[in-house]
Write a structure and sequence with these properties.
458 residues; mainly alpha; 2 domains; two-stranded antiparallel sheet; two-stranded antiparallel ribbon; 44% helix; binds heme C
Length: 458
């Protein structure tokens, strides 16, 4: 029998001469087209999916946790979740957290022994209220639908008066729906469906992804002073947009540099939406979880949840609006020459010791770990080496000192701004400190400060 491959050569030639180049051409055309327009499939949220209810552990942000953690959180575990583990699986931090729990700074939402007296677990009612206001991941919104029976006349008119603010903050349902799809595709695996920082990949990261549900964001530049009101400033939309576009160096927050401006803005809107929803949930649960407060505070009444949500939404939208009305204006930098800047830095050293060294021990090289407002763990930056989350420029350092780092416990410091007398002399303690911190990160400048000004730094 003649083997079939004897007849094959002519066919092979045909394949080589015509078919390969043909497919090659088609393939390169496809690639070329790919170059012009990268295919970026955006996932849509399933129509029936709801935002899950918050459960587990909660840190009370009224009183920061005061104990010093002994180690970073266990991989894959929020530090507070240690409290739910059996003794032998716990880390050394758990004992400290037990004390915090006794002092009513940490609560377990899954165990409310006192709620029976208060008429049962309020969470189903809370979930219904939040769903009415904030919709679902597929159809997010911030006001209940027009015909929702939850809209009693009293709250209806109050909510209606907030529509212009929601327009201003770009929280229209169509923008939110776009943001929600982009969020599902790009962010959810780390930040979680509700923005709790607890996505399936998020819990394995150090530091943990931001939990938006306490209204606290770290890297802000709103310029408002809320210390007197005891209110935490919210970020400007531009702050959130910068974080999304540039990421946060030294953490796992990536830079989404190729997203269009419209996509970034839709994501910013959706982060604000999740933060509003999460904070109303958080504020209610914090009251309900604390037996003493729950019994006395009318805001803890599950029957009055729609009114509570309306009041909170009113307060929060106005706060976000205020923080978005302006951004920080930096005081003019009085130091123009290298020599003037170096002299300023040498004066800034004393200010650093007075204001910053208690946390940034050994210029940050020996900083101790610290619980933050979420009950997760952070560490004052090593300013003599480590990179910064936001760019290491004099302007950003000024902004961090001026605003503090909310949630991380770094206080804002504004009393260093130049007095009129200092201004007249062409000096500013603020910029003295800024240049000291700026030069701390530069080995050459550190040596200069040591050799020329006798500062004790290496
Ligand atoms: C790979 C994980 C990961 C992904 C994906 C991710 N993030 Fe983050 N994100 C983080 C981490 C970690 C932090 C906290 C960093 C820190 O505190 O230093 C963070 C912080 C933030 C913050 C807080 C900034 C502040 O000032 O406090 C915002 C806002 C944010 N991310 C938005 C987004 C958005 C929007 C997306 C999707 C477009 C996204 N992130 C995707 C990990 C991620
Ligand atoms: C109560 C403790 C505390 C004090 C006081 C404090 N810091 Fe911090 N600082 C922190 C913590 C915590 C972080 C890390 C924040 C994070 O990313 O979680 C930090 C981070 C920083 C950063 C890094 C910002 C970035 O983009 O990564 C700078 C710069 C900084 N601090 C400067 C200062 C200066 C200057 C002072 C004095 C005016 C000061 N800090 C006082 C706790 C403190």
């Amino acid at each position: 029998m003649i083997p079939s491959n004897r007849q094959a050569p002519p066919q092979r030639n045909f394949t080589r001469c015509y078919l390969f180049p043909f497919f090659g051409l088609v393939f390169s055309l496809t690639l070329l087209q790919g170059c012009q327009k990268p295919p970026e499939p955006i996932e849509t949220n399933p129509p029936k999916e709801k935002y899950p209810q918050r459960s587990g552990w909660l840190a009370c942000d009224k009183q920061d946790l005061t104990s010093i953690p002994v180690e970073w959180n266990q991989n894959g575990l929020h530090p507070l979740a240690e409290l739910g583990l059996e003794k032998e699986k716990r880390s050394k931090n758990a004992e400290l957290l037990e004390t915090e729990q006794k002092n009513n700074r940490v609560f377990n939402l899954d165990r409310y022994p006192h709620l029976k007296d208060l008429g049962g677990d309020p969470r189903p009612k809370l979930a219904a209220t939040l769903d009415a206001f904030f919709g679902t991941p597929a159809e997010p919104r911030i006001f209940p639908a027009e015909k929702d029976p939850i809209l009693k006349p009293e709250i209806k008119s109050q909510l209606q008066s907030l529509h212009p603010i929601s327009e201003e903050l770009q929280l229209r349902p169509d923008i939110l729906a776009k943001g929600a799809s982009l969020y599902r595709t790009n962010c959810q695996t780390c930040h979680g469906v509700t923005g709790g920082g607890d996505g399936p990949a998020g819990r394995y990261l150090t530091p943990l992804p931001r939990d938006y549900r306490q209204g606290a964001f770290k890297f802000i530049s709103t310029g408002y002073d809320f210390t007197a009101d005891k209110v935490r400033a919210r970020p400007h939309r531009d702050d959130l947009a910068r974080t999304i576009r540039k990421g946060l160096d030294g953490s796992s927050m990536p830079a989404f540099a190729t997203l269009s401006e419209a996509d970034v803005q839709a994501l910013v809107s959706y982060v604000i939406h999740l933060s509003l929803r999460g904070e109303i949930e958080y504020r209610f649960l914090r009251i309900a979880a604390d037996k003493k407060i729950a019994e006395e505070d009318p805001d803890g009444d599950p029957e009055a949840l729609p009114e509570f949500a309306t009041r909170q939404l009113d307060r929060l939208l106005k706060l976000w609006k205020k923080c978005n009305e302006k951004t920080i204006t930096l005081e003019e930098d009085p130091y123009l020459t290298e020599t003037a800047k170096l002299e300023a830095a040498s004066r800034g050293h004393r200010l650093f010791l007075e204001n910053c060294a208690s946390c940034h021990l050994g210029y940050g090289r020996e900083s101790k770990l610290k619980f933050d407002a979420w009950g997760s763990i952070t560490k004052p930056r090593n300013l003599a080496g480590e990179g910064y989350r936001v760019g290491r420029t004099p302007q950003e350092i000024f902004t961090r000192i001026y605003e503090g780092i909310p949630g991380a416990g770094m206080p804002e410091k504004r009393d260093l701004l130049a007095t009129p007398a200092e201004k007249a002399e062409g000096r500013s303690r603020m910029w003295d400190l800024v240049y000291f911190v700026y030069y701390l990160g530069d080995a050459y400048k550190r040596r200069q400060l040591r050799n020329e000004f006798g500062l004790p730094i290496d």
